[in-house]
Design goal:
three-stranded antiparallel sheet; 308 residues
Length: 308
């Protein structure tokens, strides 16, 4: 909390958000480059494979067997899945709709009110992840009480029941290892639908309860002395016009973020989809804050780079 206060007062962005992004980034770095094994020993002479996927790829290629080639492909696919989801999230995060507004008291001067495509950010995915964690918690409790209504577990992995279908399958690993079956495809589609539908429901709930709905935004715009060119300064008219944008963005943005989180999970990314999306959005928001606060005092070449 002390470091968060220091960052909020003297730095850029939120300290808690930076800690989250740093934790996820460190996990990705470890999963790619760590020379240690899962037991914490150095991989040379231990007889175990290292955690770092780069080392796994090189060691597997040196061995040259069919099984080692499969291992190398799986390790490469996990890195590629993380990179692809990262780029997709950055691209989607940069999409926005700009609504032209004008100042009623200053003729000829106006601004553009940006509405991001991911209107509710990653809040819906976080809430869906919390819901799934609660399902797994209750499934474990019911199983320990002798009533496995929600399913059973094999170690930390769901084995049967409802919790199995909301646990992400690793489709890419199953494809390369030769264990892929038709049930895996149905499992993946069920998980994707659960994430998308859950994200849409929580997105609508979040918009209505956090003051991001069209009515609240219309009041905020009119209170700032702004209005849409060609329309009267009436809250009802402004609300109706904003609803044309906010309604579709709430649903489509939630569907996109739910699909990206599910894609990261089923493709075997180095960290789970919710953590990856959270870290990317925090870093992207930090980039936007830096570009906004220091645009005018930058070197011209650096300013051009930040405007890309």
């Amino acid at each position: 909390m002390l470091m968060d206060e220091v960052v909020n007062k003297w730095g850029i962005g939120s300290g808690l958000s930076l800690f989250i992004a740093a934790g996820v980034s460190a996990e990705v770095f470890i999963q790619i480059f760590s020379p240690l094994t899962t037991t914490g020993a150095f991989f040379v002479g231990s007889g175990q494979a290292p955690v770092g996927r780069i080392l796994v790829i090189f060691l597997s290629l040196f061995q040259g067997s069919v099984e080692s080639m499969k291992t190398a492909l799986i390790a490469f696919s996990e890195i590629a899945a993380t990179a692809i989801v990262f780029l997709l999230v950055v691209y989607v995060q940069a999409m926005k709709v700009e609504i032209p507004l004008s100042f009623g008291r200053i003729r000829g001067y106006g601004i553009r009110w940006p509405l991001k495509f991911i209107y509710t950010s990653n809040i819906p995915v976080i809430l869906v992840a919390a819901l799934m964690a609660n399902f797994q918690l209750w499934a474990r409790l019911l199983e320990s009480w002798g009533r496995p209504i929600l399913g059973t577990f094999s170690g930390n992995t769901p084995a049967t029941g409802f919790v199995t279908w909301i646990f992400p399958p690793n489709i890419v690993r199953n494809l390369f290892s030769g264990t892929f079956a038709s049930i895996d495809l149905a499992h993946a589609l069920t998980y994707i639908l659960f994430m998308i539908i859950g994200a849409v429901i929580f997105s609508i709930f979040w918009v209505q309860t956090s003051g991001m709905d069209a009515k609240s935004q219309a009041k905020q715009i009119l209170a700032s002395g702004l209005s849409m060119p060609g329309f009267r300064q009436d809250p009802r008219i402004m609300e109706r016009l904003l609803q044309r944008y906010i309604g579709p963005l709430t649903i489509m943005g939630a569907m996109a973020i739910g699909f990206l989180a599910a894609l990261a999970d089923i493709s075997g990314a180095l960290v789970n989809g919710t953590s990856l999306l959270l870290a990317v959005m925090i870093v992207f928001r930090l980039y936007e804050d830096i570009a906004k606060q220091h645009m005018y005092d930058m070197h011209p070449m650096m300013r051009k780079f930040m405007q890309i």
